[in-house]
Design brief:
Layout (H helix, E strand, L loop, with lengths): L1 H58 L34
């Protein structure tokens, strides 16, 4: 009888340790590996879209056309988006 109780406790503890180990492995994968994988896929997709867009714009140009290209990153944004001020005029009699 003592042997059965010992084996029962041993198997129970082994199962609990296995469940905890699986939980920790899933937690590590979700926290560290999955976001890195998703970020890499997004970067690859973004680069693919940029290449496709550049290929399309370069193919649509004719040989002697003049084109201007600039980076929007270098452009400074306006501090004030609404640069005007509304003034309410009253009629004087």
């Amino acid at each position: 009888m003592v042997l059965f109780v010992t084996l029962y406790i041993y198997n129970f503890m082994r199962t609990v340790i296995f469940i905890i180990a699986v939980f920790l492995i899933i937690r590590i994968v979700i926290r560290y590996i999955f976001p890195a994988f998703i970020n890499k896929k997004f970067r690859d997709f973004e680069q693919q879209m940029r290449n496709q867009q550049n290929k399309h714009t370069k193919a649509s140009r004719k040989e002697n056309d003049v084109t201007l290209e600039f980076n929007r990153k270098n452009q400074k944004e306006s501090k004030f988006k609404n640069e005007g001020e509304y003034v309410d005029f009253e009629e004087v009699e």
